[in-house]
Amino acid sequence: MNAVKLDGKAVAAQIKGELKERVEALAGKGCRPTLGTILVGADPGSKIYVAGKHRDCADVGIGSMRIDLPETAKRSDILAAIDELNNAKDCTGYIVQLPLPAGLDTNEILTMIDPAKDADGLHPFNLGNLVLNSSGPFTTPIPCTPRGIVELGRRGGIGWDGANVCAVGLGSTVGKPLSLLLSHSSINSTVDGCHIGTKNLAEHTRRADIVVVATGVAHLLKPEMVKPGAAVFDVGVTRKIDCKTGKSHILGDVHPRVAEVAGWLSPNPGGVGPMTRAMLLVNVVEAAELQSER
Q: In Å, what is the CA distance from 13 to each residue of 10, 85, 275, 281?
C-alpha cells in the first residue's frame, strides 16, 4: 500500500484563492485585513517563517505590518511593540513569532496581545473559549496548526466524525489545542492524548484511525505502530546538520516507511506547515469580517 499524499501546499493554494474573494468583498466595504508580525532576534527558521507569512499576505491582498527587534531587545521593548499593534487601527490581527530568545517569559508576552487580534489563537482567553465551547459556533480565533490539520484532512477525504484519533505530543501549540478542537461537536472525534512518555505508545497508535504526531522526535512513529489504512499527520520537526556539507535538513516524526502502511500521509515538509500559514490568513480575514459587521 502506498499512502495517498495529503498535499498541504496544494490545499493552502486553494484556500488562498478562496480568501482573495473574501478580501475583495471586504474591500467593497472599505475594510482591508492586515496582518502584523513581531520578530525578536535573528533565528534563521523564524526569519524564514515571517518572510513567508508576508509573502502570503501579498498573494491574497492582505496588508502587512512588520516589527523586527534585535536579540538584545528587553521585555519593555517587546511590550511596547505589542502595545503599538494593539492600538493600530489598521492592524486586524498579529503574531509574536515563537520561539522568543532565552530569558523572556513567552506566556506573559502572549497574554499581552489583544485577544481579538490574536491571529495565532494562542492567547489564554481564546484557548479558554476553546475549552468552554463544545458545540456552538466559533467566535474567537482557532489555533492555526490544529485548524490546518483538520482542514487538510477534510479536503483530502478523511472523515473526522466519530474517528478514533491518537494525538502524540501535548504541546501548547499543537497537541493540547488539537485535542480540544477535535472534541467540538462540529468535528466529533474521539481523542487519545499521548506523549513520548506514554507507556506502550504503539498500542495507542495502532488502534487509531488517525494519528497526529507532534513531538520533535525524529522518526518516532514507525510502520509497525500504524494500523493499515490509517491517516497519519507528520507535524514535528527535527533539524539535522550534515557533517560533510554543514547544511541542515528536516526530519519529521514519522518514519518514511509508514507510507507503505498508511492510507493517507501528510508529509513533513509540505503537509501541515503550509496549512498553518494558510489558517493564519483565515484568522485575519475572519477577524476583519467580524469588525466589518459591527
A: 5, 28, 9, 12
Sorted by where each begins, the domain ranges of the chain are 32-114, 143-272
**Catalytic residue from among 97, 176, 209, 234:** 97
Instruction: Give the pLDDT confidence score for residue 241 in this predicted structure.
Output: 79
Which residues, at least 6 apart from 220, have a Cβ–Cβ distance to it below 8 Å? 168, 196, 213, 236, 253, 254
| Known catalytic residue at 43 | no
Name the stretches of the chain with pLDDT < 50. none
**Annotation marks residue 120 as catalytic:** yes
What pTM was computed for the model? 0.94
Residues 6+ apart with CB under 8 A from 80: none
pLDDT for the residue 291: 85
Q: What is the pLDDT of residues 195-229, one digit of tens each?
A: 999 999 999 999 999 999 999 999 999 999 999 99
Q: Span 143-272: which CATH code?
A: 3.40.50.720
Fold assignment, 32-114: Rossmann fold (3.40.50)
Annotated catalytic, 29?
no
